[in-house]
Amino acid sequence: MNIQSIDKQLLLPILILFTLASCSKKFEESDYSAYFQGEIFNPNSDYVLFCKDNNVLDTLYLDKNNKFFHHFDSITPGMYIYRHKPEYQYIYIDKNDSLNVRLNTKDFDHSVTFSGRGAEKNNFLMALNMKNLVDENAKYENYDLGPKDFLRKLDSTHAARTTYYLRSKTMINWSNDFDSYAKAKLDLYFFSQKEIYPIAHYIRTKQDIRQELPKDYYSFRKKVDYNDERMISFSSYTRYLSIMLNATTNETEIEFDAENKFDKNIEKLNIVDTLIANKKVKNAILDNIAFVYLLEDQNLNNNDKFLDRYFELSTDSTQHSELIKIQEAVQNLKYEKRLPNVPLVNIKGKSIHINRIISKPTLMFVWTKNSLGHADGAHRRAIQLLENTPDVQVISVCIDGEHEEWVDFVNKYNHPNLIELRCTDFNQMKDQWIITKIQRSFVLNSDGTIRNAFVNIFDKNIDHLLLTKEEE
To answer: Do the domain assignments include residue 19?
Structure first.
């Protein structure tokens, strides 16, 4: 029978029955096969990378319809990553799952949807991710609140989201392994905000409220498993540990002194050594501390001392060579050198050579469409600096997104000495400017030479650095 001749009113019930039959299929206990397929709208390349713990397991190529398909004869249930550069997302695959993903690169995170066997748990993670993204802008305003109001608002949101998690867990009946990731994504988002709050409140209000915090304020730290090996490639987990270590060592303490950055990072290494027993977790966190430190503290003597201590504690020899490479690459951004040219365009879409537009002492910061709260805060800080120091210029560089979307966002920030640019090849910029985190800014001399390639626009002494006479 030709399917086109079937009455459309009968087609939907047939499809439903087919789907139910597929979902009710019986699998052998020893069958660990699974399917992963998908469709990408507006693809950036002709392939998707399928990864585990940052290792590429397979390259899934798109066909002429921008679809891919892969059958796993046997797969270990767990959390995986699929990458379509420059973006990535997590996917949990259990045995016998048959997952189909659809996404649009123009709105990557907001467009991801799953269907098929195993879709419910992955759609839950994406829904939780979207709820967190919606909170991003509001959370900065929450940091302005006093401790009681901040905790009341945060705990209320956490409780509502926990109810959503428990209801989904009951309905979907997911595995204990998946539950570890779901609970981590739920809780660590709120734990991170509690870690950040005391310093963020001071930065935004100039009020030190640390003595007003409840005595049990940090009791949530006891709920975190610091030795969970499964989580070392899960960003919610590693991001929280990084934030917690910053808070514990008071790296951004109320009266921050840049000179003590070396001591604070050595302290971080020592805390990790005593706090974390699992070697894989310990190595992963030590590596993260080292990568961040080498991209911030450019005192070569301190770098050598820091690496000596890192090598004493880390047993991950493969990362040792990577860190040495980074230390060597940093030399290309040393004082009085010029920034390598990378593909940039202005609002009119015209290509811009970075070293040809510098005419004053300049602060340049980068931002992403995936963190609009940071982007807004950085722009407001930039305009504040320009109003206080009219003899400087600020360059804002968006590292991703579509041109029209970017123009719409930046049009609300207007200042004659604020230059808006967008990078059209993030990978090239990342490698040449060593962009590994979004809180990254550069201070350039009026002739375009580098004064400091590793600063933060929110550093309290950034205006002093900009105003320091170049001959000094």
So the answer is: no
- CA dist 310 and 190 (Å) reads 30
Q: What is the end-to-end Cα distance of the chain in Å, rounded?
A: 86
For residue 116, what pLDDT is reported? 95
Q: Do 266 and 142 lie in a common domain?
A: yes
- Would the CA dihedral through 6, 11, 15, 21 be positive or negative? negative
Maximum C-alpha span of the chain: 86
Residue pair 150/140 in contact (Cβ under 8 Å)? The answer is no
How many domains does the chain contain in total? 3
Give me the residue label for tokens 């992403």.
368
Residue 161 maps to a domain: yes
Whether 472 has a pLDDT exceeding 60, the answer reads no
Per-residue pLDDT of 170-223, as tens digits, reads 999 999 999 999 999 999 999 999 999 998 898 889 899 999 999 999 999 999
Amino acid residing at 87: E
Spatial strand order of the sheet with 78-84 comes to: 55-61, 47-52, 78-84, 87-93
Domain limits for position 64: 31-117
Is residue 113 domain-shared with residue 128, that is, in the same domain?
no
Report the run of H or E that residue 270 belongs to, with start and end: helix 261-275
Do 462 and 444 contact (CB within 8 A), yes or no? Answer: no
CB 344, CB 351: distance < 8 Å? yes
Q: What is the Cα–Cα distance from 99 to 296, expressed in whole angstroms?
A: 41
pLDDT per position as a tens digit, 331-352: 777 777 888 889 999 999 999 9
In sequence order, the β-bridge partners of residue 55 are 52
Query: Is the same domain home to 151 and 268?
Result: yes
Give percent above pLDDT 70 in the chain. Answer: 89
Instruction: Enter the tokens of residue 150.
Output: 């901040």
> How many Å apart are CA 351 and CA 345, to the nearest integer?
4
Q: Are 81 and 52 a contacting pair, CB within 8 Å?
A: yes
In the listed set 333, 359, 393, which residue is the last one of a domain according to the structure?
333
Can you tell me which residue has the tokens 């995936």? 370
Is residue 323, in this structure, part of any structural domain at all?
Answer: yes
Domain boundary among 285, 313, 333: 333
- pLDDT for position 454: 82
In the block, residue with structure tokens 């390349």: 45
With a CB cutoff of 8 Å and minimum separation 6, the contacts of 295 are 326, 330, 434, 436, 437, 440, 454
Asked if the peptide bond before residue 86 counts as cis, ω within 30 degrees of 0, the response is yes
Look at residue 472 and tell me if it is in a domain: no
Q: Is the pLDDT of residue 299 over 70?
A: no
